[in-house]
Amino acid sequence: MAIEILVPRLGWTMEEGVFIRWLKQDGDPVAQGDLLFELEGDKAMTEVESMDAGILRIPPDSPEPGSTVLVGALLAYIVAAGEAAPFEQRSRGAEEKRRGGEEGESDVLPVPSSPLLPLTSAPPLPVSSAPTISPRARRVADELGLDWSKIKGSGRTGRIVEADVRAAAEAVQTVVAAAAVKEKSVAPVATQVAPVVAISGSATRAPLSATRRVIAERMSAGVHVAAPVTLTSDVDATELVRLREQLKNDKRALAIPSYTDLLAKIVAHALQEHPALNSRLEGNEIVTERAVHIGIAVDAERGLLVPVVRDAQAKTLLQIAAESAGLIARVREGKAGPDELRGSTFTITNLGMYDIDAFSPIINLPECAVLGMGRITPKQIVTLRPGTIDEVERVAVRRMMTLSLTFDHRLVDGAPAARFLQRVKQLVEQPYLWLVS
Amino acid sequence: MRELTYTAAAREALAEQMAIDPTIFVVGEGIGPRGGNFMTTAGLYDLYGPMRLRDTPIAERGFIGLCTGAAMTGSRPVVDFMFLDFILDGMGELINQVAKIQYMSDGRLKMPIVLRGSIGVGGSAATHHSGNYYSIFAHIPGFKVVLPSTPYDAKGLFKTALRGNDPVMFLEHKLLLNTKGPVPEEDYEIPFGQARIARAGGKGCRATVVALASMVRKTLEACDQLAKDGIDIEVIDPRTVAPLDTDTILESLHKTGRLLIVDETFAPCGIGAEIAAQAVDRALDDLDAPVKRLNGAFAPTPYSPPLEAAMIPNATTIEAAIRDLLAE
Hints:
The structure holds two protein chains of two kinds.
Chain A lengths: L2 E4 L9 E7 L6 E2 L4 E6 L4 E5 L4 E4 L10 E3 L3 E6 L6 H13 L36 H10 L17 H10 L26 E3 L2 E3 L4 H15 L3 E9 L1 H12 L9 H15 L5 E4 L2 E4 L5 E3 L1 E3 L2 E3 L2 E2 L7 H17 L12 E5 L18 E16 L7 E17 L5 H16 L2 H4 L2
Parallel strand pairs in A: 14-18, 18-19
Antiparallel strand pairs in A: 1-8, 2-4, 2-7, 3-6, 4-5, 6-8, 9-10, 11-20, 12-13, 14-17, 15-16, 19-20
Chain B lengths: L2 E3 H15 L3 E5 L15 H9 E3 L4 H13 L3 E8 L7 H8 L2 H4 L9 E6 L14 H5 L5 E3 L4 H13 L4 E6 L6 E3 L13 E4 L7 E5 L3 H14 L4 E5 L2 E3 L3 H11 L2 E5 L7 H12 L9 E4 L9 H6 L4 H12 L2
Parallel strand pairs in B: 2-3, 2-4, 4-5, 5-7, 6-7, 10-11, 10-13, 13-14
Antiparallel strand pairs in B: 1-8, 6-12, 9-11
Helix pairs in contact in B: 1-7, 3-4, 8-12
């Protein structure tokens, strides 16, 4: 690689100088710092030293000693040992051409130039294959109780950003898998975003809607992220039925609570005594709320929605009844606001209308428990004489209901969950206990 | 409201404060009868005379030391460096004496000295006349470092500088000196450590951009272009980098989730790095994207006009950097 020796600028305004003489000869080895030639500038004669080491090669057309040269003019080359000087390659090519070379090759081979310096850039960090999420989006997902692991990220590198989380939350208004139905249920209708259903052969095909996809993700999380266990208990709801009948028959009753309302009140009461069932997992902390916000699963046109009765522990039964009626009406009309559909600490779902006895409801993450209500149906109940093994004291027909409590075993153990359910059972069977507080 | 140039606004602050406070005097090369290379003291020699407008030889270390002693003994010198680059000759005085005297004397000695000079790349001022260097001073305990970007800020911040008891680096970007803006006639101060929201973003504002000195105007130009595409950006001008108002920046970040810092001078160890570190430390859960910085090239300033222009951010590259941040 040939290094060019050019006429240097010795003074700020110098444009030309006089090349006095060489201090080395063509072919001489040169070390860094060796004096190469003398040059006269504006003010004085200077001995110019070499910045490089190699072999000095002076081309035949280099300026003669004593001639005036322009600043920047080429004087010579320094090449590596054994390397041909650029002017030699040129003349060789020219000689071949003179000798009658047929090809129209240019007689000046390109001067070897320094290799292009590689662009310096930091090596890219290995990209992890697991989904990545920005800290802000993770915070928002936690606030909304959304499992973000399946959301598709729109950020560069596939990162999930806030907008992706908010879009996913908008798409899903519901969490609990099983539909809950009030007295008059509307048969589920295909949502407006229903994609085209194709019919081919014996099967119909419909692409997964955004709503359905998010429900699928949340249901999956409720089963696979949580550690769900379902406890069932047969509860004697006769007194509850009697209470409700009395309210129905009272012409001046302000509101008639549904069985779901009644259980909401009972659950709110029981959760005050068993606050562990009113918790959620946030990172490495278990956050236990004092207030009880009951989510009531409702079957609406869009799908399953869960409006929230806030501070149920502080409201009377009739207040809860009036509020839930309003919420459910708004949900059915599609007019419920987003604030009415989030923030629950415990969810209740009722499938009794469909003659379901017991089931395994899925937890509404990030809550830690959900209570499923089955149908209230007359059953024959046996009471044994105390102290005996099998002597019947009484056979009676009672109105029985099965309660199914699914709890998250990551947060709550079996015994505390069972104690909570036992208390709920007791409050259902003896309404006076909570009516007076 | 009347409009003044940046230089005239700062000069008005100086003139008014010199009228009230007889202990203020100005020291520098050509600041006497000549009125300063950049007209920083034009007309003041006629008002206040040679005792208070003292021309010096080219001896920065000497007259910094002289003013350090003057400040310690009860007067309030303003040292006018013309080009801030010339201050580098006196780094020993600055860092070991000026910055530390109050500490070393347990507060018995005050250091009410204002060190002013023009900074920044522009006009082919080249390697020795284009320095910014404020990151260095912001890094040393004891200095206030002030970077006004408008005539309004220049007057208010200069008043505060002249009334305090601490050393103040008052840095005026050379390309801002002739810019005009509204300046109230009445007296007012702008406290140090109080950022200005140069462009307030509305709901749906997509990013926070912090810009320094001459970058503020260029960033606002970039935002005007982005607004045509419906992209709303909030722009914050810290006005002082020591103390630095990170609270205002982080409040904005809380709204927008994305942060870009535009600073003409070099990236390594700069103000942008400081802001980014604080953002990640104090507001990690507000970040929706990596914190980005747009800086000038890490190289001495070229003389050649096209090279000089290519090495600092302009409205086009700022706009591209904002779009790049939004794509993260």
